[in-house]
User: Fold this.
Amino acid sequence: MALDETPGPLTPAVFHVLLALSDEALHGYAIMKRVETDSGLGMGPGTIYGSLDRLRDAGWVSEESSVAGDTRRGRSFALTTLGRNALRAEARRLARLAELAAVRGAGAAATS
Amino acid sequence: MPLLISTAIWLYRLALVRYSPEFRAAWGGEMLDAFELSLRDAWSKGGGSAVARVCWNTMSDLAKPLPSLRVGKAPAMRRARTTLGGRGVGMFEDFLMDVRLAVRGLFRTPGQAGVLILTLGLGLGTTTAIFSVLQGVLLSPLPYHEPDELISIRHRFDVDGLGLSGLGGADILDYQEGAPSIEAFGAVQTLESNLNDDQGAARIKMGWSTRDFWQMLGTEAAMGRVLESSDWAGADRAKMEDPNFVPPPMAVLLGHDLWVSRFGSDSDVLGRSIRVNGQSMNVIGVLPAGFKLHFPAGSNGTSDIDVFALMPVPLSNMGRGGSGLQTIARLKDGATIEQAEGELKRVLDGLRESEPVHARRGTEVVVSPLHDEVVRPARAFLWILFGAVGLLLLIACTNVANLLLVRASARETEFAVRSALGVGRGRMVRQLLTEGLVLSVLGSATGLLLAGWAVRGLIALRPGNLPRLGSVSLDHNVLFFSLALTVGVSLLFGLIPALASGGGNPQALVSSRGSGSARAGTVTRNLLIVGEVAFSVILVVGAGLLLRSFSELRKVDLGFEAEGLLAVDVALPFFGYRADESRSAFYVQLAERAASLPGVTGAGVTPAVPLGAKSNGTWLTGISPNGEALDDADAPQARFRALSAGTLGVLGANFVDGRDLILADETSEGPVPVVIDRRLADAHWPEGALGRSFQGGIAGYTGQGSIQELRVVGIVEPVRFASASAVGEPTVFLPYRVYTPVDGTLIVETQASPAQVLAGVREIVQSLDPGVPAYSVRRVSDIVEDSMAESRYALLLVGVFAVTALLLAAVGLYGVISTLVQQRTREIGIRMAHGARAGDIRRMVLKDGGQVVVVGVLVGLGGSVLMAPLVNSLLFGVDPVDPATLLVTALLLGMVAILASTLPAQRAARVDPVEALREG
Assistant:
């Protein structure tokens, strides 16, 4: 369980995987589908599992033994507290940036 | 589609080596699962295009480095280094970068990329399609147990026009005795037969096999069991032919197709009793789906037998010499075919001493591997097609290489910049190779798609007598072949521009328009054009020869007029019509009554329609025009064919002299009136054959087929019954009463529709005997067309290849000449400034293009002459080195070349000297 010391923005892939896992534990293919419905991004297996690999090493997600009602083989993943904090921090950062954009006349708030 | 999905998954599994072993161990299985799931989801929701999108996403996913947690500086650095081709990032990431650069570079000019991929796809697709036919028909082993041990044994006779034949039954017994290196013999005889059940009468093909045939073949039943020797329920010949003898029920094995179509795939069929030819039979088993009897070519329709039973008559009763007994055998473990051949020859040497028929006909035994014999008729044809399609692939590759050369010279600046920045030559050559690989992978994906359609088309065209079409598919062998082709082609495409471009010389950048290496490129390009034109010439010559040969074939005088004739097949059950008179009475009545159907102007019966696949129902025998003994070795031979009254007239045969057979000939006393072939008349009675008497028939036979006194009442020009391309044996046409086989074809001259005629004929047959089926009606002109199916098929395919080749050659030529003009804009400007006129410039460009084309045409013509012996087997009535075809081809190529170079020549002539010089 390595410590995440370097501050800085998350890569989009990692952010989307964290976001997909924010309200329930999912397995890899379900994450892929979830990312697609969340944002329209088509992420391939390499990106999804590559992210999961890093996230697990960092201790941001943990493996769940099984998900009720799901018979597919393969592991499921859930956010740890560490991961939830990282997602929250990134979301705050993005919200701040979105606000800034709105203030400068380029965001959703300005057009409404 | 499932094939495509499993191929994609298989490829993805391979591609996973891109990740580190640890990563693969941890995640590989789940990644494959995820990929498969997304493919299946995409297929069920969005079909092909969605699958393509998933594949594309996954491909680009493979090309990306694994994501890190946070955006940092290291990835950006790495990206910059890889983009410029720096070092130290790792082989695989370099490769992925190359792939990405190649894909991006390729689609920067989407039009050109489309042309490249399509050209390549066309070449690879057609080659793959023809290969899959070649593989399925020629290369794959026969679907039997230890197929290499199976051999074909036939007899050949020293008699003109008599082809290879099955063995006599008694001969098989002698061979069995005298050939210890052969483990077992098996033979099958086919007979069109009538199946009667509560659904009425149906026409089926019955295969009578020897007793342990199925054990020798090693085929298992899908349901129940195969036939074995204890199932035999026959009797000797005399007893079988006794009209009062009722044979006991026989055991039968159903073919899978009949089981499905007639018995509704009923699993209770075992033990059920059916009636075939009036004989009751018990079903003991059903053969597996797709089972076919692959026998040597020319063995009368052994391939699609519906029902098998054991031959009711013992082999010892089945004669010597030739027969319809198609014989195969299995060698003992370790025995060679040469050993077996030697033993069989020794046995036959003895038989020629003891058996007059072998002595008279000079019998020889022909032994060969069964596989060779099965595929023989297709072999030359398919290899020629494969050669033709190979030429097409070469032309497509040449074109692509040419376009790549053009691109390479346009990219010299790019390479020079990269070289100046310190990117090594090796690294750049590798990138060119990668670009070649990307191009060929995309091309071969397109090609596989095309091949899938093409294979379906090739099978749907039903190429005449091509054996084993059922085993043609895009299987793993074909995919492997396609993969190997792709790799080979990609190497070619990477290497050519890499070598021609000199790997990026910084000097070129300084001298602005790199004219030095452009010259080197021009030489390569001219060579490619010469090759392309030469290959096209060879293909066009081939297509031209096939076209001429086909038109020669159609011009042949067949000896009959097919127009306005319909053929209806009828056959009598052997067991209901064992008496000769009953068969001839049936057919004579049928012909007579059919002639009076409304709309029918004439009708006749003969055992088999001319040029139909069946050649049975006739026999070859000795004749004695000058009092020779019939079983004398020197007695002339002729084929005997029964005809009802007036049939030759209905067929429109050309009478040289005398008259047609008439109804009274069926009952006349004294010598039997016959019509003979003009060739017999010329050979034996040059002073006039009409009214001559002679003997014909088989000694020792009683009843039909025995020796008869014959008298010539008419002489006709030869009628081609067996094949349009060969005139066949001299024929004696006899009244039906002399020799009446169970099979018959009613030939009707009419303007009425086939359905109408069939209905009328059915009514007559029903009234004569309700148990007899009249089962198919065809236009005789269609039958004649079908007999030329192979020629037409070859012509169609090679013609399509040739036209494609011409188009590709035109595109290639056009591309090269326009590049040339572009590169020489400055030179043209100078020439014009010095007073050259538009016409001079146009002529100059045309001349440059023309020289290359002339060289190409000459090389191609030379090539065609060299290849002539290879195509000879497909030709009829045309010399393989045909001056007219060669000349026309040369002119055609010349015209294409002029067309292709006119446009660039015009453009050159319109060059504005001021503009050209300013730009330079």
Summary: Strands of chain A lie at 26-27, 61-64, 76-79.
